[in-house]
Amino acid sequence: MLKKIKILIYSNILLSQTLFFSVFAILGLTYQGSGESSIYTLYLVGSALLAYSIFFFELIKRVTFKPVLAIIFAFPVVFLFFNFIAPEHTFVKSQTNLFFVLVLPAAFVGYIVARTDKLSSINRSFIITGTIVFIGVLRVLPRLLSSSVIDLMDVFGGGQYQAFSYFCAFSFLAFFRYFLYQDNLKFWKYLIYIFVLLVLCAGVILSGGRGGLIVVFTGLIVFIIRKKGFLKFFKYFFLSSITIFLLLLFVSKSNFFFSERITESFDRLFSFVSSDGINMEGTSNRDDFYGIALSKISNSLIFGYGIFGLVDSLGEYYPHNIFLEILLQGGIIYLIIFLVIMISFFLKLSLLIRLKKDEDVILIPTIYSVVLLLFSSSYLQEPFFWFSLSYVFSYPFNNLKNKKNEIISDNF
Predict the structure, then answer these.
(1) What share of the chain is helix, strand, coil (3-state, %, to 5)?
(2) CA distances from 112 to 9, 51, 236, 269, 403 (A)
């Protein structure tokens, strides 16, 4: 029973935002922000305190201290230093709160889950959360179909359309991977999985969130290639491309109910694509965000400005791209350090999923968070990014290699 409670606490800190807004959506409620109610803040703080408590208990009880823990502990110290020298600003306060309530606990959870081999249990939580999101999508589907994309700022329990898009995309990946690995699936179960995937995909499309769509496509490519190989991937890609083209052609030429609403969503999803290539004017002001970042970077290319160094001049600004954010905060020096860490991460990740196929569950939060950080969020607020890094760097590769060597020796 205690083990299940621990897994529940671990999963909750990773999925707290998704769970909160999904439950609100199912209940037909709308969270109006901290100005109206403190329930969301209390939920996040309570979840973080539970996660911290379990982490330190596990660390003292059974988990050996590893060098990666020093890094996990060191970054908050650096973060607090920049927080201390930063000017008084609500953005500094909110970023700090999110880091210590969402990000740092997620990093600790990644360490514990890796050292205790509990990723399969976390995966079950992904499926359960995906089911809750699926029910939430069904609950808000009438509003999705009857409202314009521009009217969906609080469509999912108070969560705006972009967050809703990512919630659906994450749930889609969790179900798709689970579905892909099922052998000899009964026909009725097959139909249920297809229905769930279609509903979640509809949530991504109707929300008009481009980031969620990129998560879905990236996940499909990665998992199909991993499971079926390149040749079958191209076969599926060819067939699905024809199917999507025919569906879009049918929707655009017909006048059936909701066809205009679906067309509107597709127009927004692909508004960044034009006959001349990429149209930055159709990227929800990303051209402005990137332009400001590039201008500032050119003035301090080597060292950057520090984590909160631009608060006085830019206020609540971040560039919606992790590479630009890294350059702004620490210049080329920080970017080189970041690239070394990420290259090492992906090399270890590749080794891990080669040695132990079931470990490719970690690709779900990795794909989700990397896409999110490339187009939407800040790495100082994204728990899945830190969970993935911490998990891969903390994984006991030596134990895994020893087991593989023992199996090979027994076969001979």
Answers:
(1) 80, 0, 20
(2) 12, 11, 38, 38, 21
Q: Cα–Cα distance between 161 and 215 in angstroms, integer?
A: 15
* Tokens (6 digits) for 405: 């060597």
Distance, in Å, from the CA atom of 156 to the CA atom of 309, rounded to the nearest integer, reads 34
SS3 72: helix
Q: What is the pLDDT along the chain (412 residues), one digit of tens a residue?
A: 678 888 999 999 999 999 999 999 999 888 887 777 889 999 999 999 999 988 888 777 765 666 666 776 788 888 888 888 888 888 888 889 899 999 999 998 998 899 888 999 999 999 999 999 999 999 988 888 877 766 666 778 887 788 889 999 999 999 999 988 887 778 888 899 889 998 998 899 888 888 898 999 999 999 988 887 777 777 777 776 676 666 656 655 555 556 666 767 767 766 666 666 666 666 667 888 899 999 999 999 999 999 988 888 888 888 989 999 999 999 999 999 999 999 999 999 999 999 888 899 999 999 999 999 998 889 999 999 999 999 999 898 876 666 555 444 444 3
**DSSP symbol at 280:** G
* Selection from 161, 182, 43 nearest residue 102 by Cα: 43
DSSP character string of 121-157:
HHHHHHHHHHHHHHHHHHHHHHHHHHS-GGG-TTTBT
Buried b (16+ CB within 10 A) or exposed e, 185-219: eeeeeeeebeebbebbbbbbbbbbbbbbbbbbebb
pTM exceeds 0.70, yes or no: yes
Contact status, residue 176 vs residue 220, Cβ threshold 8 Å = yes
Whether 79 and 38 have beta carbons less than 8 Å apart is answered as no
